[in-house]
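User: Nicotinate phosphoribosyltransferase, Crenobacter oryzisoli:
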Amino acid sequence: MKTLHRHIITSLLDTDLYKFTMLQVVLHQFPAAWGEYEFKCRNTPLYPLGELKEELDEQLDLLCQLSFSQEELNYLRSLRYIRADFVDYLELFHLQRRFITTEIAADGGLDIRVKGPLVQAMFFEIFVLAIVNELYFQRLSTPEMLQEGQRRLTEKIARLLKFEAEQSHHHDGPLLLADFGTRRRFSRDWHHQLVGELNAAVPAIFRGTSNVYLAWKLGVIPIGTMAHEFLQAFQGLGVRLRDFQKAALEAWVQEYRGDLGIALTDVVGMDAFLRDFDLYFAKLFDGLRHDSGDPFDWGEKAIRHYKALRIDPATKMLTFGDGLDIDKAIELFRHFDGRIQTSFGIGTNLSNDMGVEALQIVMKLVSCNGQPVAKLPDSPGKIMCSDETFLAYLRQVFNVTTR
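Assistant: Predicted structure for Nicotinate phosphoribosyltransferase:
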């Protein structure tokens, strides 16, 4: 059954900022690197995703015809951390269809793989996930579902307005909330609507979006630094495995010279990260981003680490972005308020809270330059590696005895 009515992706800016920031480092520092990505669905869909293959292939064909307009390039040039030569490269950029393949898996699901130079392969992920989500929910969407999504969004805004009014009587720091929902969104149109409503209703709380296109169109801050794939790539870039995190952080520092200073901590877990995050990096980075494990424990570890280095935690930022909703963000804000700065990125609970279970889909880097790579985060369900031998070796090197 074919339900396609329009192009799902109409702009190459309709992705997360960290795709651009990571790609810039790749282009400047290891442009010849190759990577392989694999798609995975972590929950059980209401119907087999393999049924979407024909429509997905058509959308990928359309995606690979897109290029950046001069207006889009001008917007990228306006971001001070985006370099002119990178924008010049993007002026010639097209995603190449030959680097991505789709198959119907044995279980009826989708087998999607990207194999190619990282300067191409890294850019597919968010588009693919957004397309699969929208195709999937096109078959399930009803007027009642959209009404339920709007009702829930209205409740969220009311909760934020209530919190804002309560905070006006205190001298606490601001609650900073951002949209991180591109990859799991119900649809492009719904995503655009909800970000616009949040920005209009709670501008003092809503600090921006990871989606570059929406940031451009709404005049809000585009938010993002690095993702797991950036640090994972260094597992295959020829540095000693024990040193891959330090090599990745150093490459970031050399590229951005003080901009984009939030580091992701959980590629091999928070404890192993902090062993590498010494005084040098702790002073150079503005803060840390949480993406797995208990967020309260993680934040307390971060505060203790800064104190041990004789850095005032109040000068640093913790960004939380793992499975959050509004109430959890407020709870975390109150827990850490006055001790360390906090900000919050909410994904699925904003962009796909429609009363129907959202897809838990990911597309992860599994090899770089022909070498297996892995992430070993603090949440066991998020482990993804195609080579168990390498995963065991990674555990040994970083002394990770659990997960």
